[in-house]
Amino acid sequence: MHILSAKIWFPPIEDAMEDGLLAIGGDLSINRLILAYQQGIFPWYDGDTPLWWSPDPRFVLWPDDLIISKSMKQVLKKNVFEFKINSAFAEVIHQCKIQSRVGQDGTWITDAMESAYIELHQMGLAWSAEAWQNNQLVGGLYGIRMGKLFFGESMFSVVSNASKFAFIHWVQQLKKEGVVLIDCQVYTDHLASLGATMISRELFKDYLEKYVYPG
Length: 215
Fold this sequence. Notes:
By secondary structure, this protein is an alpha+beta fold. The chain has helices at 30-38, 70-78, 89-98, 111-122, 162-176, 189-192, 201-211; strands at residues 2-4, 21-25, 42-43, 51-53, 58-61, 82-85, 126-133, 136-146, 149-157, 181-185, 197-199. The radius of gyration is 17 Å and the shape is globular.
């Protein structure tokens, strides 16, 4: 495992440990975060020191593989929610931060991370996809969009099916706009039910090199 300093760099992702941990330290500066995503690396930690990850295998979704269950098709047909993009990014990431999750004592979204991703949003790199009901934000997700890849970070829901609704609409929107792969990082039953699957880090790296453009 590599220890990072003030210098903005990352070791080759092949140097990651078996659990995917690649490096420790550094900061959440915008330039470092941009470089991380360009190389298929993401921050994930619950303390004061950043931990940087590149797991193998990688959990991803090809837009064509999106699974919409019969029950969700009914939800979509009934227009229970309204779909919006980037109308409340700061609120989405804050909700992802404060929502309690089964099996977790706290959140990995620190104050510093919240601020950094809001700045990335202001630069046009971080996006939110949202579910609204009766003019209230009830679910959504956020992540980083670079080239033809979207790197999902977190999602939340305060009403049943709201996050699934936002995710389905977002995947369909990204597909229309030519996005070829959605990074889901690590396995969850929730995303597996929507069609996400595991691929090798080597294949994921190929997609990065082909479809993620610098800057």
